[in-house]
């Protein structure tokens, strides 16, 4: 997998790892989504999903290419999540698919040394993960969809993310 795709997948996986995920840019917990001209997120799941993302924060805000990025996710888990939970991640630029892959969430959490591991019991979680954004990340708008599934292949969580890395000279949308 390419380094830049890996970075975006990590960002997307961190979002989906709200079961297995203190930034400087917090927002009200009652906000259903957060969006700026550089990044945003929206819960695309249902009220019946066992994982609900309450907030996502990044630091620095906005994210900077070639610098460390810390992602903090607050989530509520209402059912135990066991080994076998997965996330389907789709990363696109416009209509072009850069990556479409299924990840084992418990394995990804272990590999990332996440503070939460499977089985994940019901409760409130805050998971913080940092990554170095490579200098090679193209300055484009990335759209990321993460759909998580329980070990029984039932819907677990869904989040849509956008990340816009703009050229330093661009002053328009």
TrEMBL record:
Family per record: Belongs to the NPC2 family.
Endpoints of the signal sequence: 1-20
Molecular function GO labels: sterol binding
InterPro entries: GM2-AP_sf (IPR036846), Ig_E-set (IPR014756), ML_dom (IPR003172), ML_PG-PI_TP (IPR033917), NPC2-like (IPR039670)
Complex formation: Monomer.
Domain MD-2-related lipid-recognition: 41-163
UniProt function note: Catalyzes the intermembrane transfer of phosphatidylglycerol and phosphatidylinositol.
UniProt-listed GO biological process terms: intracellular sterol transport
Keywords: Lipid transport, Signal, Transport
Source organism: Mycena rosella
SUPFAM superfamilies: E set domains
Pfam (any one): E1_DerP2_DerF2
Name listed for the protein in its UniProt record: Phosphatidylglycerol/phosphatidylinositol transfer protein
